[in-house]
Amino acid sequence: MDLNFRREDRNFQNEVRRFVKESLPADIRDRIHRGTPYRKADAVAWQRILNAKGWGAPHWPKKFGGTGWTATQRYLFDEETAGECPPQSPFGLSMVAPVIYTFGNDAQRARYLPRILNADDWWCQGYSEPGSGSDLASLKTRAVVDGDSYVVNGHKIWTTQAHEADMIFCLVRTNTEVKAQLGISFLLIDMKTPGITVRPIITLDEGHTINEVFLDNVRVPRENLVGEEGEGWTYAKFLLGFERTGIAQVAHSKHRLAKLKQIAKAELCHGRPLIQDNDFRAKIAEVEIELTALEYTNLRILADSERGKTPGPEASMLKIRGSEIGQKLTELAVEALGNYATPYDPVREGQNEPPIGPAYGEGLMRSFLYGRAYTIYGGSNEIQRNIIAKMVLGL
User: Fold this and answer.
1) What's the CATH code of the domain at 335?
2) Which residues, 6+ apart, have CB-to-CB distance to 323 below 8 Å?
3) CB of 370 within 8 A of CB of 295?
């Protein structure tokens, strides 16, 4: 693998850097740098700025409204926006959109893709259920045909951003007489449909990002079925490959690593900067080596995707290592903060009092607490290891 970027790639990187500097609103930039909680309004505003530039979907094919960028350009775009800009919501752009433009029909592409690009529709993911998380094929949410509609009844859980979403892509059981995987279909459901109830789940960081979603006789037009009835399991696996690749979060972890080093230079240990402590330096070096290895693996997979290969079992490896590295980085940041990490103020937006401890510590404990979920969402790491054992090692 050639690790040297071409001149045109460096020119592109500089273009992205200039665009971010000139186009990202100052108030959004300030909130990102202060580590304040995620705000949908910021993500929507930034997505619309990117879409107006023609950069709304870096990884989509150009014929569907994407950029047509190379894998290298997508990588450099992530490098320049991670830690500087609001994250682009993955549920629409990186998950359901590839399913729609790959398996959906022309009417679905025309209806949904432009609205995803401009953040006119905000999406969430209806996969997990009580008792059907890692064993997703055991899901029980039913969809029964009634005239021109499916009538859906069931219960989804751990649904990120459901309370803010306009649409949900949902796995439902349309046939109970066949093998579990063969009876699943993929539906697109308007969250304003009568019969949908969203109940919040407050996480360890005292934040509200995930929810339960109850579906009680929800009528969904049959035209909202993606692809063929009973093929939802195929589409779900296709989508999860993109989700788990994204969970690697290499660019964001590199940003966290840089911030960790900044903290270690500022914090003192026995009168010297913590970065000079041999034990702590060894911890930083270990996680940096792991992150570098993950980055090269991610680059290889990006190069494969440029040749038309869809992420397969290797996406599980990215998910495992990416989530574990993310947790290590938040753990080390909290360790570096020492006593200042103990007091926890989950929401500081709008407060006029200074933070407890140094400004660079703001938001780190929240990231640490929420980060306990990194190895669970997107398919728990234990299950990902089983996938690698079966699909790669043949065990």
Assistant:
1) 1.20.140.10
2) 247, 374, 375, 378, 381
3) no
DSSP per position, 26-46: HHHHHHHHHTPPP-HHHHHHH
Domain that holds residue 368: 247-391
Nearest to 373 by CA among 258, 209, 129, 253: 209
Non-local CB neighbours of 394 within 8 Å, separated by 6+ positions: none
Phi first, then psi, for residue 135 (nearest 5°) are: -90, 70
| pTM recorded for the entire structure | 0.85
When divided into structural domains, the chain yields a total of 3
The answer to whether residues 269 and 159 belong to one domain is no
Q: Are 260 and 169 found together in one domain? A: no
pLDDT in tens, 357-384: 787 887 788 888 888 888 887 778 888 8
Helix 40-53 vs helix 7-23: crossing angle, to nearest 10: 130
Q: Give dist(CA 16, CA 18) in Å, integer.
A: 5
